[in-house]
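Lab meeting prep.
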Amino acid sequence: MNISEKHRPKLFNDFVGNQDAVKEVVDIIKQNKSVVIVGPPGCGKTTIAYVIANEFGFVPIKTNASDERRKDELTRIERDLKMKSFIPVLYIFDEVDGIHDWSIMLRILKKCKVPVILTANEKRKLPKEIFKFAKLVEFKALKTTEVATRMNKIAKLEGVEIKLDKISGDMRESIQRTFYNSDSYEKEKSDFDKVDEIFKHKGLHEISPMWLIDNISSYFDAKDFYEVIEIIKIYSKTKDINILKALPKAKNGKSVYPNYFRQMVRNNGSGST
């Protein structure tokens, strides 16, 4: 498993750097308002969104908004906002500075009655209109002392010795350079890619069980359905991603955005089970 993912902070106490900015983000979310976090790569923008979701009991719904194939997903999310939900949700839109057509995202921000966190690397690429609906909070690159402290903690947990001569203010890049002796790191995979790699035994990732459940039919035939569902149920209960190693290997399939969450919202809104 990727070390940066394995040791991604899940609690406020484990999060490194930008503490004043973090407090500001938390205050905004507590008011049920939207926030756009801007800062350089590896400073913890997406990580703090997941920490907030974990600490406050939200179901995180994440998408990389800059990806071209996310247009349909954003449209579905916009439709979902019209339905009443009793499930505490936190929408996380990554890399919004890569969006070319802001019309859907702006409509989402206008209509959304649940917290929204957007992340971006560059403020200059964001339309001014967004700040009418999402408050700007800026993160700075991490201090090398902060990175070093975190790296030493990870090394201790991994039981290895490391040198800190390749660290920078980018936590992910520093981990890659230090633990894998590489001068570049792989960009975080999308949920689509994670599902594909899990089912085809090409990788192991933390991912919401709803993505796996809703994509079973794209990867497995009837004879494997029961076994796959049972394994995912165990994973959902234990949160141990190693359970997913027991999944049958799928030869074909293509991941799609899950309908499972939207159906949950419909069922809760109508009072059915």
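Slide two material, second protein:
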Amino acid sequence: MHLFIDIGGTNTRLTVSEDGKSFPEPVIFPTEQNFEAALQDLDKEIHQLISGSITSTIVGLPGVLDQAAGSLSISPNLPQWIDQPIIQKIKEVTDSPTSFFNDSALAGLGEAWFGAGKDYSIVTYLTISTGVGGARIVNKQIDEMTYGFEPGFQIIDASGKLCPDCHHPSSLEDLVGGANVAKRFKCHPKDIKDQQVWDTIALWLSYGLNNVISLWSPEVIVLGGPMMRDIPIDKVREYTEKLAVFVPQIPDIKAAKHEKDKAFYGALALLDTTNN
């Protein structure tokens, strides 16, 4: 029995895989900002979900990881979790070998194996969610890195002219991340009905994609996350094509296929790699 845990800034999702090839509908519950409270919730939900032994546990976490310490070193959406012994505590709860990955990297791996990137060798995955994350996947593996991939932290607007109400200098996450959009408009992003707002956010996202193309040279860019329900992907393609004049042809830009359970598909890919 393999346990998959996807910890997000808003919700935590749990599921299991008995055969290493599939998983049932996940259990979903709010992620507590307080680490100790979140750990208690996790302990309760895991033991309600699984009564037997756990073979392995794969965890997705939002932010920059400290692999040696088994913790988060940077996490804008879970600041109280920073430097906490997350993996040690989860090992104690599950009594199983535990590996952990950036949640966006897991999601990107899932899309490269089973989703919109499966027919490509070099995949860039971006999730436009509470924040903005992403990863580079090469030949069906998470590309090598020193600290991790954080495309949401790239500076898009140093002057502050694009968005006077944003943090300066403005990163891609400041401009298009759901939490910051909600703060600017004082409502949930799904309640914004002005199409001009979404077209502008599509333009700002294309600035980030232009940088991603120049730095990562992908064959395809896969866009996921709940904000992509309203950001018009056709506009993103149009704006990116106008910006990225330094390449003969822009990469394919596609919507994620497995949006809801993206990190769990990445966990299945890891199991497949391990087993083979």
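Talking points for slide two:
The domain at 116-255 is CATH 3.30.420.40 (Nucleotidyltransferase; domain 5).
DSSP finds eight helices and 14 strands in the chain.
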